[in-house]
Design a protein that fits this description.
The protein is globular and about 65 Å long. A hairpin with a 2-residue loop joins strand 11 and strand 12. Helix 3 crosses helix 9. Strands 3-2-1-4-8-10 form a 6-stranded mixed beta sheet, with helices on both faces. Strands 5-9 form a two-stranded antiparallel sheet. The termini are far apart. It has 14 helices and 12 strands. The chain folds into 2 domains: about 210 residues, NADH:ubiquinone oxidoreductase-like, 20kDa subunit (Rossmann fold), CATH 3.40.50.700; about 120 residues, Cytochrome-c3 hydrogenase, C-terminal domain (Cytochrome-c3 Hydrogenase, Chain A, domain 2). The protein has about 350 residues and is of the alpha/beta class. It binds ligand FSX and iron/sulfur cluster. The site of iron/sulfur cluster has 14 residues, from helix 11.
Length: about 350
């Protein structure tokens, strides 16, 4: 069968969560495109690090396609701790060196030679720390996908004082082969769609923080259905009140993702439509930057403009390079520029 063009694939990715008609194409498109060759050449190994397990839960709750379809038609998932895939990860690594996809969920603790996360023991009864497995498999993998904000940047697992010196995957593996899928947890479409893109076309286009632009290219605030309330300065002060949730702590003005258009749980809802402010869980500095979750953001500085969070949307709305400016603003807020990771002691 004719392989989908990348353009067609991106179109299906963009619309799969939003349009029932297009979501019908998602499964056959992925299944057709991956085919037997992909299954033979690009197995996926999924390793769990230090986290809550919500990333796997999100993946398991994929609606289009369902998990059953993902496992039987889309991915050759050879190892996952919860799903019954038990092929030895190191065997996959050796047999498909330089090709296979390594998925890592959760942060990696570096302190005390990785003693904060022991995932097994060798034939002599010696502990096998997660950090060794990630380093070895990461070196063998063709592509490494960090699923969730913990695996991407440390996330909740690396909140100060971070006694375990937990870090994101890029801290251990060449960032050139790492793709970050942040979110606490990430949307299942972001995970499946990114894996699909890798198999079909290689690495997707990434932003400065290693996130695929096809899912993280837009600001939550720009597509929020409550945006008109914001423009009219109608703000809710408690749950259930009509209005933009900025005063209730919404971080939509600094968070990137397609949640408002894709929506969650089979396109039925998302945080803001569920009456909860966005907590900015896709940000490289989540959760420390975006806490307290339910308090209004402090004053925000934009290059050349001093603004408050109350009018940042209006200011950026008239900027010709709004997308760039907004992203830059996010960088300024968190005091970061460029792709980097929380670097910690404890090696
Ligand atoms: Fe972290 Fe994943 Fe948040 Fe939890 O395992 S991104 S704590 S939803 O689930 O890593
Ligand atoms: Fe929507 Fe939050 Fe922006 Fe208000 S601040 S418009 S609730 S994203």
């Amino acid at each position: 069968m004719k392989k989908l063009s990348r353009r067609q694939f991106l179109k299906i990715c963009a619309a799969s969560g939003a349009a029932a008609g297009l979501s019908q194409l998602w499964i056959p498109a992925l299944a057709e495109a991956f085919g037997e060759a992909a299954k033979a050449n690009l197995p996926v190994v999924w390793i769990q690090g230090s986290a809550c397990g919500g990333c796997s839960t999100s993946f398991i709750n994929s609606v289009h396609p369902e998990l059953r379809e993902i496992l039987s038609e889309v991915l050759d998932l050879t190892f996952h701790p919860n799903l019954g895939q038990t092929a030895a990860p190191m065997d996959t690594g050796r047999n498909h060196r330089g090709k296979f996809i390594l998925v890592i969920e959760g942060a990696i603790p570096k302190a005390n030679k990785g003693a904060f996360n022991i995932i097994g023991e060798d034939s002599s009864g010696n502990d096998i720390p997660l950090i060794d497995v990630v380093s070895n498999l990461g070196e063998m993998a063709g592509t490494v996908v960090a699923v969730g904000t913990c695996a991407s940047y440390g996330g909740v697992s690396a909140v100060e004082p971070n006694v375990s010196y937990s870090v994101g995957v890029e801290n251990l593996i060449d960032p050139g082969k790492v793709i970050n899928i942040p979110g606490c947890p990430p949307h299942p479409d972001w995970i499946v769609g990114t894996l699909g893109h890798i198999m079909l076309y290689g690495k997707p286009d990434l932003d400065d923080f290693g996130r695929p632009k096809m899912f993280y290219g837009g600001l939550i605030h720009n597509n929020c259905p409550l945006r008109q309330y914001f423009e009219n300065s109608i703000f809710a002060t408690k749950a259930g009140e009509k209005g933009c949730m900025l005063m209730m702590g919404c971080k939509g003005p600094i968070a990137f993702g397609d949640c408002p258009t894709r929506q969650w749980n089979g396109s039925s809802s998302w945080c803001v439509s569920g009456n909860a402010p966005c907590i900015g869980c896709t940000d490289p500095k989540f959760p420390e930057l975006t806490m307290p979750f339910y308090q209004k953001m402090p004053e925000i500085s934009i290059p050349g403009i001093s603004s408050t969070a109350d009018n940042i949307g209006k200011v950026l709305g008239v900027a010709t390079t709004a997308g760039v400016a907004i992203h830059f603003t996010g960088s300024l807020i968190s005091g970061r520029l460029g792709r980097k990771n929380k670097s910690k002691e404890g090696d």
